[in-house]
Each structure stands twice: as structure tokens, then as C-alpha cells.
Amino acid sequence: MPTGNILVADDDAAIRTVLNQALSRVGYDVRVTGNAATLWRWVSQGEGDLVITDVVMPDENAFDLLPRIKKIRPEMPIIVMSAQNTFLTAVKASERGAYEYLPKPFDLNELVTIIGRALAEPKPRAADGAEEEGDNIPLVGRSPAMQDIYRLLARLMQTDLTVMIAGESGTGKELVAKALHDYGKRANGPFVAINMAAIPRDLIEAELFGHEKGAFTGAQTRNTGRFEQAEGGTLFLDEIGDMPMEAQTRLLRVLQQGEYTTVGGRVPIKTNVRIIAATNKDLRQLINQGLFREDLYYRLNVVPIRLPPLRERTEDIPDLVRHFFAQAEKEGLPHKQIEQAALDRLRRYRWPGNVRELENLVRRLAALYPQEIINEQTIEAELGEPSANPANDGDREEETLGGSVERHMSGYFREFGDTLPPPGLYHRVLREIEEPLIGAALAATRGNQIRAAELLGLNRNTLRKKIRDLDIQVIRSSR
């Protein structure tokens, strides 16, 4: 049975009671209080092995108390809870020395697991100052999916680990990369972004590594590359799946050896940059097609982050809409509000363009509509515009899944002209269909694997194995 003395501080008496009962039941000695002053007295007197505290207390903010606790008891793990549930809350908890951050409401079983881990392997962290949150929140959303991402990002802030961000177009991959830089230990260095899909393939190596004068036709002077520009900071490689094979080989060498040469150069140049890559493609599928190096994938995929599409976190839409309206107002556009019915209509939309599409819609509403209150009819008019070719849309509605696959495969074979696609087509196609099918079932059941297995007609263990083999991230959320 676990042992340890747990100090709990929370302004909410109901939460204090629940924690006291739950932790006492599994064997911990628990003391509870509703204010920071009592918590500080206990800690300063040497009591307790672990602290659980809410951020907002009636007499003092826990973020002001944490540095004092860490100063006199650096070995004491502190678990911070908060109903604010923002990205900066998670970051600030990490910066102030918290062992773990839990958004409210939290899972008691998860809390018990965290407590056991913290008491078994205490990890003291140096506390430092942090600026107030302000209004410039880089990431917006309080959904369970975003809370998981905030907690992961908070753990990564003081590391130089290479990160791979996967997500559909418009989900905010560059925002996440910028947040990792701006709130990490390389914040004083440059943040340099390069989009592989936006640069001609024959110029990517010169863009990345720079080139010497005369290295190729048109190279009139020596140019610095993005690696040199990002020295001491972060290099964000967007749409890494579009990087040509030759540049992949050179990038792998940089990651392995920590140095590179310019195009046309001979002297190796040492580099000190943090690499963050992003993609909206399935890199494993590109590996099977021989279009992406498997060894480079594993070098880049040290810490994978999957950004959920907006349709998987529709509970964040109200916060996002208010955020974008506030941004538009700061830029000189009229103040706008939105009715609840209009928000409900936004949540029913599928958002193929994700957060970027929502942002564009909100800016359009702010700029083009004279009324201050945006209603459901306005949203319906924006989202329900008729297709440019309704006849074709009607045909598409009658199309079966088999017909859709046949149409897609016909276009796929046409891309290869007189040649054939790489071998292994059967398994590639099945894999490409299987992953979104399982993903859709998990999204429909809000991450409940038992219900998803029943929906798919699969054994639960079979589904778990497929989730693991396909590396599908499961996000539990409530409706």
C-alpha cells in the first residue's frame, strides 16, 4: 500500500473532500486546506511529502507560492491543478517548478498514478521567474485534446529534443513550433521557418545550407542558408514530406554529425540549432513508396506531436471565435459578438480547412457584416454557399465507397503514365483506408476503444494492436 503525506490546497471544499477521501482510501495520509497561508506554514515546518494545489487561492496565487516552496524544499514534488486550462497555465506551472500540471476536471486514477511516480522518483527542478500571461496566448482551446498538447509542450520547453508535428493543413503546426521556441530555452535566439513545398526542389539544398559564389548558374554571391540564419535558435522545417531525397540525405548527415557544408563549399560548418519538423502527410506511407528516408524519419520523430483537426475539438470553437474577433478588433475592425445558435451551427460544420478556415471566416464576418451580433442565419449563409457545380455534387452524393476508391486509383495510375507504381500497392491501399476508418470510429466514440471496437466489429485486442501498429493517437474527450 502506498505511503506518504499529501498536502492538498484548494478553495473548493467539494474538491478537498473528494481528494481527501480518494487518496486516504489508497493509503496516503492527507491534510487539506482552503488557503495558501496554511499550505505555506505546513511546508515551511517540514511537513508533507507532496503538494497538490489549485492555482487560484483566496489569499495568494499558487504561482507566486511555488518558487518559495521550491527554494526551501527543492525536493518536494508539486502537482498544480487549474480550471483556467490554457497553454500558458501549463507552461507557467512547468516554469515555476511544478512536477505535473492537471487541468480541471481531472481523472482521479491519473492523479494517483502521478503521485506514486512523483514520490518514487522525485525530480527537483530549478524555479525561475515568468512573465504574466497577458492576452497574447499563442494557442487557444480548453478541450481535452488541447490539454494533452499543452502538458506535452510544457515538458518540452526546457529541452532541445527534436520534435515532429503532424496534422492536417490549417491545424496550427507553425504556431506550436513558435510556442516551443518562444517559451523554451532558445527564446533569445532566432526562429527560422522554411516551407519545403514552397521552394523549387533544385534550390532547397541551397536554401537550407547556403551556397558559395559560383556554386551554380546564377550564384553571383555567397548566400547564407537557413541553418546559418537559425544558429543558436530553432529551425522549423514545414512540410518535411516534400523534401527531395538528396536534401534528405544532407539533412540526415547534419543531424548525425552536427555539421554541414554549403553548396559548393568544402569546409564543414558546426551548427547549433533545434530542429522542429512538421508534415500533413503520412511519412510512413512515403517511406513505403521510397520517397522518404526511414532513418531520417526516426531522427526527426524523437517527440511526435499530433495536432487534432478542428472537427475533433469542436468544443474549442467558441474560444477560438472570441479570440479571432478580439484580434480583428485590435487591427481596427468593428467589435463583434456571436449568438449561441450561431456557435452551435459552427460546431456542426466539418471544417476541412481547420482553424485557418475558421479564422478566415471570423475576419470576414468582422469586416463585411454591419450588425454587431452575428446570428445563425449569417453563419448559415457563409457556410451553406452553393457549390460551383451542383450537378457534379449530386452525382458525388450517389457515389459508393467502392466507386470512390476506383476513381481515386484511376487517377493514381495516371500519375505514373506508362510506368507502374512501386510494388506493395495492395497493402498500401488497405493501410491508407484502414487508418482513417479506425480514426473516424475513434472520433465518433470520442476515443472510447470499447465502443469503437464494437462499432467496427473488431475484437478489442485487435483494435488495440492496430492502433499501436498504425501509431494512431487516441484522444479521450466528453461531449
Describe the structure.
InterPro entries: AAA+_ATPase, AAA_lid_NorR, CheY-like_superfamily, Homeodomain-like_sf, HTH_Fis, P-loop_NTPase, Sig_transdc_resp-reg_receiver, Sigma_54_int. One of its GO terms (cellular component) is cytoplasm. Residues 379-402 are annotated as: Disordered. The chain has 479 residues and is of the alpha/beta class. Helices cover 46% and strands 12% of the residues. The strands form 4 sheets. A 5-stranded parallel sheet has the order 2-1-3-4-5, sandwiched between helices. Helix 1 (13-25) links the parallel strand 1 and strand 2 (29-33). Helix 4 runs parallel beside helix 6 (144-156) and helix 19 (425-444) packs across helix 20. It is globular and about 75 Å long. It starts with a strand and ends in a 10-residue tail after the last helix.
Biggest sheet descriptor: 5 strands, parallel
Mean pLDDT: 85
Q: Based on helices, strands and strand pairing, what is the structural class? A: alpha/beta
Taken from the alpha-carbon principal axes, the silhouette is globular
Supply Rg: 26 Å
The CATH homologous superfamily name of the largest domain equals: P-loop containing nucleotide triphosphate hydrolases
Tell me the name of the CATH class of the largest domain. Alpha Beta
CATH architecture of the largest domain: 3-Layer(aba) Sandwich
Strand line-up of the largest beta sheet: 2-1-3-4-5
Poorly predicted ranges (pLDDT <50, ≥5 residues)? 122-135, 385-397
GO molecular function: ATP binding; phosphorelay response regulator activity; sequence-specific DNA binding
Keywords: Activator, ATP-binding, Cytoplasm, DNA-binding, Nitrogen fixation, Nucleotide-binding, Phosphoprotein, Repressor, Transcription, Transcription regulation, Two-component regulatory system
Pfam family, one: HTH_8
GO cellular component, one term: cytoplasm
